[in-house]
Amino acid sequence: MSSFIDELALQYDRGHDRWSTLRSFEYHVGKYPSETILTVPKGFITDLASVPWGFRWLVPMSGEYNQAAVLHDWMCVTMYGTHRQRCEIFAEAMIVLGVPDWKRKLMTAAVRVGGPRNKKR
What we know:
The protein is of the alpha+beta class. It has three helices and six strands; from the N terminus they run ββββββααα. It has one domain (3-114). The chain is globular, with a radius of gyration of 14 Å.
């Protein structure tokens, strides 16, 4: 099973309504230990889960999925892998965190539709 190696530590920036990581954390993709280790650096800026206002009653911007959301934000900013790979890793990370199936499937569907795509060359 995949694994987060470190716990998520964040600091809120009220003036910009954003969070920043207080230390880096690693995520092992696939089985642990993995050949593919993603490292979100200290100081990475995130908005946690980018949930449209009208849906926040169902899925708040913050929850048990925070570390997966930060990982997904980092993958999108760095354009790690393909859009599909980012979605799959996001879903996998939420399984690791114990996010309920209905919520994981809903959030994964949302990033599949709304997440950034790699530019075709």
